[in-house]
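Issue 218. Parser rejects a valid record. Input:
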Amino acid sequence: MVYNKNIMETNNVHIYKSSYSFRGIPDQKDYANHIHNTYEILYFLQGNVQMIMGGNVYKMKKGDLFIARPFTYHSVKVVDKSVPYERFVFNFSEDFIPKISKEFFKNARDVYNIPSSHPIYGLMEEWKKICLENSIQDIEEAQRELFKTVITLLSTFITEKEIKPVKTNKLIEKILEYIDEHPTEKITAQNLAEKFFVSTSWIVHTFKTHLDISLMDYVNKKRILYAQFLINNGLSPTQAYEQCNYTDYSTFYRQYKKFIGSVPKLDKKQD
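Output the parser choked on:
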């Protein structure tokens, strides 16, 4: 059994999308690794799956709420497809976050477990019921306020318990951080190997094994997302292409269109 309900609203300021999904037999091909320039919250209901967040791997349990910041690589790994997988996903731009919650999201951990006594837990159960019993048209008005309430409540969520990953790679974490902090530099496996005192083959192999994405695919996606960010903030596509250290505009244009789904000029904000 597969059940999906997706709702999306966009304008020049906000990008907001919510989805509820239940899959009786989850298939790994439906959960490709991905990266985007919006926030993502995944609220886990059931399943035998893991969440990969950067260099960390987490075992999911009911009530876990994962927060992926913009430009953060993340994916779901199906451990046992005989167990149904059920979750909510919310994607939203930083502009959608209420002022009271901005500091929380700036310093948020990868994952929080929401206890059954917390209001967020009850809201998510209510939201599931709404999604199952109503049409998309009927829930469009309710979803925005409900989700804003969840975001606001998160800013008041206090817990000393930190959920530890089941697997981590500190060196990969440092490499990811370096790539994140240098989106306009030319990055290769060789210069990363020299900087972090490892072999080129180690970086290529470990990156692919740990993150299920090749190093250069990751680097290119990061550059494209940064170019999109620059264009959204007023630079021309040519300026963004140059600032992101591309040497061939046709390559930049092709990669941008393939990954973003539109040509560069279409993403520029309208006055």
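Fixed in the parser; the record now loads. Strands lie at 2-10, 15-23, 39-46, 49-53, 56-59, 64-68, 74-78, 85-92, 111-113, 167-168.
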